[in-house]
Structures are given as C-alpha cells and as structure tokens.
Design brief:
Helix content is 27%, strand content 19%. It is of the alpha+beta class. A hairpin with a 2-residue loop joins β1 and β2. α4 packs antiparallel against α5. The N and C termini lie far apart (72 Å). Keywords: DNA-directed RNA polymerase, Transcription. This is DNA-directed RNA polymerase subunit beta.
C-alpha cells in the first residue's frame, strides 16, 4: 500500500482499509508549498499585457486616422525603442512580402523589415523620423476604398523640408477586410536620384 499511497485519496484509503476508518491527516502546508513551486500557465499581468498589443492597423480607424497614427509613430520614432515608428509603418504596409513592391515608388524587395528600415534612414525619407512639424496639404478619396493625402514635413535638421503622399487602401475580403493599409508612401520628386543601397 505504501507504493500506491501517493495516488490514493483519503476516500480511497477509507474504502481499501478493512478496519475501522481512522482519521487521515494531510498537511496543507506541504500541498501549498508544492503548488507554489509549479509555475502558473499565464503570468500575473497577462490581461494587462494582452491589452497592450503592438500598435498597428485597427478596424475602427478611418483612412485619416491611419495616416495620422503613422505620422505620429514616425515623429516619435525611437520611443519606446529604436525604430519603433518604422515598425508601426511596416505593420500598416499593405504589400505582399513575397513580391517586389512599389511602396516607395520603384520596385523594391521589402519583404525583410531591415530593407524597409534602411529606406527610411535614406536621406530623403529620414525627414519623417523625428520630424518637428507637419501640415496636410490635400486629402482626397479617389475611390470608395482608396484615399490619398499629401503632407508637408519639416524635419529635425536645419532647412529639411519635404512633401510626401500617402496612398491608403481599404482591404475587401480576407483577414484584413475593412482595414486601411498603406499602399504607397511617395516623395514629391525624385527620391532616389543618387541611388540607394538597400
């Protein structure tokens, strides 16, 4: 019986014994101690961390709000960690990572985040990172699910001003149904005149 006593409950001990039932005492402190050593499946702050999902497209965002959120992320690019604003832009990007994309104008392979990040650090697009001021020049719904917005940006460096055009597309069907994603972010002018090693 000592071999199987680890599996037996107090009720089963009572049923197996032929003599009078004797009160069985089980140390509660040993049970508590044993269960304290076993980690819980979910951490204590699981619910709070679940509410803090990575920032990106939301179903309730309008096209204007989606552009505004992306520009805010780029303005505070290095908060809470370096290039977090570019990560947000990558989450909003509506291109297929397995195909070459015209997100920045010319066809680029942007499937890897690092290539996407390098273009933002290029001299033309770096104006967006940590910019000081911006002004919406024009906004237009080209179609029901396509929106364009031109934005003037004053960068953090002296005499750094550029104009960019966001093209937002609202997806229809699939897992992104109803979300506004960025189809392209174009510079007004020849952004890659000097070439780009991405």
């Amino acid at each position: 019986m000592s071999l199987h006593s680890a599996w037996l409950t107090p009720q089963s001990v009572f049923l197996l014994s032929k003599s009078e039932p004797k009160p069985v005492t089980i140390s509660v402190s040993s049970r508590v101690r044993a269960s304290a050593d076993v980690p819980d499946f979910l951490s204590a702050d699981w619910l709070e961390s679940r509410r803090k999902r990575p920032f990106g497209p939301r179903l309730n965002f309008s096209a204007e709000e989606a552009v505004h959120c992306q520009l805010d992320a780029l303005k505070y690019n290095d908060q809470p960690r370096p290039d977090y604003g570019i990560e947000v832009m990558y989450r909003f990007a509506g291109f297929d990572p397995f195909e070459r994309s015209t997100y920045f104008g010319p066809f680029f392979d942007l499937g890897q985040f690092e290539r996407f990040r390098r273009i933002f650090h290029h001299s033309t697009y770096r104006v967006l990172l940590g910019h000081k001021e911006r002004k919406i020049l024009s906004s237009l719904f080209v179609k029901e699910n396509r929106y364009k917005q031109r934005v003037w940006i004053r960068g953090s460096r002296p005499e750094e001003e550029e104009i960019f055009q966001f093209t937002m597309v609202q997806r229809v069907g699939g897992s992104w149904d109803g979300y506004w994603l960025t189809e392209s972010l174009l510079h007004d002018g020849d952004a890659f005149a000097g070439g780009l090693a991405y």
